[in-house]
Write a structure and sequence with these properties.
The protein is an alpha/beta fold. Helices cover 57% and strands 6% of the residues. It has a 5-stranded parallel β-sheet with strand order 2-3-4-1-5, covered by helices on one side. Helix 9 crosses helix 10. It is globular. The N and C termini lie far apart (59 Å).
Length: 386
């Protein structure tokens, strides 16, 4: 199975990356852009695997997914491939300097040292300037891959030195097909998960596998339909924040367990074996890192919550305009039809604007409770506001 299999609906991008990996002299700096759910990080990881793939058969396409190098990169354990992200609002200068130092090292057991910065849009101008010289004059065997939502999210001085790759949200049927083939879902399960995730493969897989995640999402998207007064709006805001916190806590717990399991394997410890005193500091460090990730995890969960709420108002607009298309929240068609009769198309658009404003406020460190309260006050149907 190729490392590019998960990049469904991205055939031109796959062709571009395969050609670059096969060339023997790929561009030294890349910028992968695309909206959330387009698979920027997956594409970057697949590209790193293709660059270092060990498949040597005549006519073999790089990125076989079966060789040791491809498997190590997929598991995040290759010594010459760094997948970098920040748990802070922005990258620290010292973090970027460390990356620049890493870029000088020769690749170990690989053709290329690949450094993937998964959220390059979180770099401040000062941090970007530290990175600029390393991208302008990279070591001969180092390749930088920066990921961001759009080219405008990266300073022009960096953007102009990178080869750009633009990804798009994959079609619903392609996401469903992947879930059927790779995850063994039934066609109905796959179609439902693909639709309500708005074609985000990672989210779709999680919603399909986790009934509690589906329950939390259903709770979120039904909230605006029940808000009629200011007091209900305040209570709904608190519920949104709590749901996001619960979602983030569940995800962090899974991630910590996975990190601990990997650390045990690397240290040669059995799953139930007691941790020796001299190794406890390493596990303690993992727990501390997980705690530091908590704030970012809540912000990310809130952002996903706001994306789900935006789908409610897109559905409402579809109903108001008589578009005759399948709704994202088709399972709530009756409730959404009733709600659409209570607000105007203008208010639905204003609610979408309020959702975008709330997403921006979260990134600017506005307390989540305040941002959500301001949002929920906007969704009270005006025609029955009392």
């Amino acid at each position: 199975m190729s490392v590019f299999d998960e990049l469904v609906g991205q055939a031109p991008v796959v062709e571009q990356l395969v050609a670059a990996a096969s060339s023997g002299a790929p561009t030294h700096a890349w910028l992968f852009t695309g909206p959330p759910g387009s698979g920027r990080s997956n594409a970057a990881r697949a590209f790193a695997a293709a660059l270092n793939c060990e498949a040597t058969a005549p006519g073999a396409t790089p990125g076989c997914g079966q060789c040791k190098s491809c498997q190590l990169i997929a598991a995040g354990g290759h010594p010459s491939v760094s997948m970098v992200s920040t748990e802070n609002v922005t990258y620290r200068i010292e973090d970027v300097r460390e990356l620049v130092t890493t870029a000088q090292d020769r690749p170990q057991g690989a053709r290329w040292r690949v450094i993937v910065v998964e959220d390059a849009d979180r770099m401040t101008e000062r941090a970007t300037n530290v990175l600029l010289k390393a991208i302008e004059e990279p070591p001969p065997q180092t390749i930088w891959v920066l990921c961001a939502p759009s080219p405008a999210d990266v300073l022009v001085t960096i953007r102009s030195r990178c080869r750009q790759v633009s990804l798009r949200i994959p079609p619903t049927d392609e996401v469903a097909r992947l879930l059927i083939e790779r995850d063994g879902l039934s066609p109905d399960q796959a179609a439902f998960a693909a639709r309500i995730s708005q074609n985000h493969i990672g989210v779709a897989r999680r919603l399909a596998a986790d009934p509690e995640a589906r329950r939390r999402r259903e709770q979120v998207v039904s909230l605006p339909l029940r808000v009629r007064t200011a007091s209900q709006a305040v209570l709904a805001a608190a519920e949104l924040v709590k749901t996001a916190q619960d979602d983030a806590a569940a995800e962090s717990e899974v991630r910590l367990a996975k990190d601990q399991e990997q650390l045990r394997r690397s240290l040669g410890l059995e799953p139930e074996e007691k941790i020796p005193a001299k190794l406890r500091s390493q596990f303690k460090r993992l727990e501390e890192e997980n705690t530091r990730r908590a704030k970012r995890a809540v912000a990310d969960a809130l952002d996903r919550t706001l994306i789900d709420l935006a789908a409610v108002y897109r559905d409402v607009l579809s109903l108001k305009l008589g578009a005759g298309v399948e709704l994202i929240n088709e399972q709530l068609r009756r409730e959404l039809t009733d709600y659409a009769g209570q607000i105007s198309a203008e208010q639905a658009l204003q609610c979408l604007d309020a959702l975008n404003a709330a997403r921006l406020r979260i990134t600017q460190n506005v307390p989540p409770a305040l941002a959500m309260e301001a949002l929920m006050m906007q969704v009270i149907p005006r025609r029955i506001r009392g």
